[in-house]
Inverse folding.
């Protein structure tokens, strides 16, 4: 399968990760779980790429697309107190975790190449 399809499927599955952890342990734990999940997924998708945080933007956007669409739907449908309490946390966890995963993958690839 292509990297884009895998990224999209991983992004769709993230909804269930955030929902189940967020409903059980609270919103902060849900955001932390989302960030960790996205970090791991992006690391998995960008491993062996020394410039992952610069050149893997299409993969990062496809990975984040389901949550970005979900937040857009939430803005259109939900009340403002729900949007302001959950939207920024979801966006920060999603985009931040994805970017962190790309940076870690990039650093790991550089160290692997530099070692004899």
């Amino acid at each position: 399968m292509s990297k884009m399809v895998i990224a999209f499927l991983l992004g769709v599955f993230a909804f269930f990760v955030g929902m189940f952890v967020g409903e059980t342990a609270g919103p902060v734990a849900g955001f932390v779980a989302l960030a960790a999940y996205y970090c791991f997924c992006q690391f998995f998708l960008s491993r062996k790429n020394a410039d992952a945080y610069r050149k893997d933007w299409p993969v990062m956007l496809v990975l984040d697309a389901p949550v970005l669409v979900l937040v857009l739907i939430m803005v259109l449908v939900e009340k403002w107190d729900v949007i302001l309490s959950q939207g920024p946390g979801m966006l920060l966890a999603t985009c931040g975790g994805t970017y962190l995963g790309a940076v870690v993958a990039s650093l790991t690839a550089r160290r692997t190449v530099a070692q004899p």
Q: What stands out?
A: Residues 3-111 form one domain. The mean pLDDT is 91. The chain has one domain: 3-111.
